[in-house]
Amino acid sequence: MNFIKALNHKPAFKPSINLSILEAHLPKCQSPKQLNQVLSQMIFTGFIRDTFAASRVLKCSADSPFVHIDHSLQIFNHIENSNGFIWNTMMRAYVQRNSPEKAICLYKLMLDRNVGCDNYTYPILVQACTIRLSEFEGKELHNQVFKTGFDSDVYVQNTLINMYAVCGNMGDARHLVDESPVLDSVSWNSILAGYVQIGDVDNAKYIYGMMPERNTIASNSMIVLFGRTGRLIEALQLFNEMPEKDMVSWSALISCYEQNEMYEEALVLFMKMKANGIMVDEVVVVSVLSACAHLSLVKTGKIIHCLVVKIGIESYVNLQNAFIHMYSTCGDIIAAQKLFNGGCHLDQISWNSMISGYLKCGSVEIAKKLFDSMPNKDVVSWSAMISGYAQHDHFSETLALFQEMQLDGLSPDETTLVSVISACTHLAALDLGIWIHAYIKKNGLKVNVILGTTLIDMYMKCGCVENALEVFYGIEEMWVSTWNALILGLAINGLVDKSLDMFSEMKRCGVVPNEITFMGVLGACRHMGLVDEGYRHFNSMIQEHKIEPNIKHYGCMVDLLGRAGMLKEAEELIETMPMAPDVATWGALLGACKKHGDNKMGERVGRKLIEFQPDHDGFHVLLSNIYASKGNWDGALEVRGMMMRHGVVKTPGCSMIEAKGVVHEFLAGDKAHPWMKEIEDKLDEIAKKLKMEGYAPDTNEISLDIDQEEKETSLFRHSEKLAIAFGLIAISPPTPIRIMKNLRICNDCHAAAKFISRAFNREIVIRDRHRFHHFKQGSCSCTDYW
DNA sequence: ATAGGGTTAG
């Protein structure tokens, strides 16, 4: 709209116009169109030359949120005989519409044109500097205020105090207060707000004490300050002593509780507030919803939602976001989704909490779709998605997303790294794990308890006991889980004595063991066949620590007894345990029967297990091997027939080995690897050397009725042997050859690995389904008990 | 002569 267009509008009323008619019409002007009608009338009659009348029209235009600022500027530019009031109006319009720099430009023009500034000019300009957080320009203004003498105006002074306080320059703010002869309650509140903002309790208390009269705003600010600095008692005391509490006072105290994680107290106070008939606004509801989210009180959240609708404040954006967060945190993803789909101006937290909400209820794919469609992903979004993948066992995706996050230029925080390290643990990706540990050190991230525990677990489950211990001794705080990772880790790495020592040390430090601790302790005993010691811990668990053993503890004991050859005792324990034994319990006994050659019991248990779980390949294989080891080929063939009928396929042995950051996979009998020729040559070399060392292949476990030579060949194609041969070629000493196997290592491979470690002077570490085997100079850390 | 300015809670 411009003046030419304005002229085309029909005059709204008769040609005669005066101030009283204008004053009567202006308040009714709601739209640019109506304003233009008045304007055209004024131009038509020449009334626009009346400076006072023109200033009234400009003010009306500037104050209307529906009129564009450029339109006001056109009016401004056409006003003849402008004055300070008109310039002030224009500058204020710019500040109000968040263009403080344009207000400052106008001020410079004002000085050039010698338009007189007045005491109203400076508060506007100081406010402009405050919005820009430009203390430099503010100081410049302060000088000019000083020269013009407007510093005696309390309004001018208060905006200056506020400006310094908002910029954090409490020295200059305080100087103004100390020197001023004209202080009103706003002056005091402004300087107080500055101290509250920087958390300076001493100076805030001093100012509050100096105030000639305490007003509610000042007391409210003090409550906020006490809350932010954790002084709940002082906040409550002040609240109780206040003669007049307003909505903000209640809201401030509720927010104190909320920020100090006293969520119940926050909710109780909110109920009290409502019972006292105090008005509720969107600000206090946000605090209360956060409390509901933390307490997972979705019902209370819903009641508050009804209240919000009843009082008609549900359309506040902040409230919508808070409700989305509350619902998704409480697991009511349906309610969250409804708001999310209908919401506008959703903030980052809403997106992030929707992603977490979907992940929490297991909808990984939906979460990923939302994540992909998200406009701005922050560290929290990435972290939520990465840890969601890890929690749902999508470990490769976890690592892939982590790489993507870094390509996106974002730095992971401690929370993200915990998930990534845990994925490394599951994939035995030691190189990446070591890289992340180095990243943590390089970037000065704090190894907190959780991160430390995760690292210990990772190193232990990758067979790096030394590194795990280094982390353990380097962290400040230890939880039960930290000790558990250590005890369990030492046990699976064959350091049983050290594991049990650490259990004593843990108790000596006053840490109370839990049921997971005893999985580690009993596991340690199992790995060394310490039957008596195992029983002692099992009993102390019940009597001393009042922990009811679960089915896994019983399974562990059955395994301990069975492996030690006490098959009868093991079976008795199964029959007397207080809960129904599961497949794993019987499976442990079957393994023991195989180890100790008890074919009668083995057949009985094996058949029971196959009946129990006809699709389990391991039990069939064990039973068939039991028959084969005693030359009962009919039995073995029958089991193989059952497997065929049930469609059970034997899981092929698979070994993984990481070389130069790449994971290589070998299956039993595999010929697919590009280096197969070199690997076969190496296997021949190994075979020759081993024969010289006196190694004889152990063909007992091969159930196929094939001749001896073929048996030996197939034995020599076991996946772990292929991996060892590859490791000898691809990994240069003294780096140990680290291999992860999906099944348990077989007798022959175990014997061969021992020989190889001596003949080639190489350390070999094999992680099988159950534990680690560290082969060094012809012996294994498991002391051949496994 | 007349009009217009600042502060607090998440």
Write the layout of secondary structure elements.
Layout lengths: L2 H6 L10 H7 L6 H14 L5 H13 L5 H10 L5 H13 L3 H13 L8 H12 L2 H14 L5 H13 L3 H10 L5 H14 L2 H10 L5 H13 L3 H10 L5 H13 L3 H13 L6 H14 L2 H13 L6 H13 L3 H10 L5 H13 L3 H9 L6 H13 L3 H13 L6 H14 L2 H13 L6 H13 L3 H10 L5 H13 L3 H13 L6 H14 L2 H13 L7 H13 L3 H10 L6 H14 L2 H14 L4 H13 L3 H14 L7 E6 L2 E6 L8 H17 L15 H8 L3 H12 L6 E5 L5 H13 L4 E4 L4 E5 L2 E2 L6
Parallel strand pairs: 3-4
Antiparallel strand pairs: 1-2, 1-3, 4-5, 5-6
Helix pairs in contact: 4-5, 4-6, 5-6, 6-7, 6-8, 7-8, 8-9, 8-10, 9-10, 10-11, 10-12, 11-12, 12-13, 12-14, 13-14, 14-15, 14-16, 15-16, 16-17, 16-18, 17-18, 18-19, 18-20, 20-21, 20-22, 21-22, 22-23, 22-24, 23-24, 24-25, 24-26, 25-26, 26-27, 26-28, 28-29, 28-30, 29-30, 30-31, 30-32, 31-32, ...
The structure holds one DNA strand of 10 nucleotides.
